[in-house]
Amino acid sequence: MNRRAAAERQGRTGERIAAWWLRLHGWRIVGSRVKTRRGEVDLIARRGRTLAFVEVKTRGDAAGLATAIDEYRLRRVAAAAEALLPRYGVGVENVRIDVMLVRPWRRPVHLTNVWHGQ
After folding, report:
1. How far is 110 from 56, CA to CA, in rounded Å?
2. Please, what is the Cα angle at 55 between 54 and 56, to 5 degrees?
3. Does the domain made of 3-111 have the CATH classification 3.40.1350.10?
4. What is the pLDDT, as a whole number, of residue 118?
5. Where are the domains of the chain?
6. Which Cys pairs are S-S linked?
7. Which residues contact 55 (CB under 8 A, 6 or more apart)?
8. With bands split at pLDDT 50, 70 and 90, how would you rate the model's confidence at 48?
9. pTM of the predicted protein model
C-alpha cells in the first residue's frame, strides 16, 4: 500500500474512532465527510441544541498531533461550516467548531469551541 492510501486509511479510522467517542458522550452524528466548495467537514455532530463541526486529526505520535491543526485548516472548516449551517443548523442555539485528536491506543482528545473567527 502506498503512503497516500495508508494516510487515507488512517484518517478514516480516526474519524470512526472520533464518531464513536462523540456518540458515547451523548452526541448524534448528523454528517460525515461533508464537502463544500469552501472545504470539508469531517464530522457534524449534534447534542441538544448544540451543533459542532468537528475536524478530526489522526497521527501516530504526540508530536504529529501537536502540529496537525493550524489557523489555515480551522479557517477552511469555518468556511465550510458557514456554507453548511442552513442545511444542518435548523433549531440549534449554539454552533461551534471542535477538534478531535486521535492517536493509536490512546483516548481521543476533544477540544471544544476552538475557532472564534477573525
Report:
1. 9
2. 110
3. yes
4. 61
5. 3-111
6. none
7. 41, 42, 69, 73, 74, 77, 97, 98, 99, 100
8. very high
9. 0.92
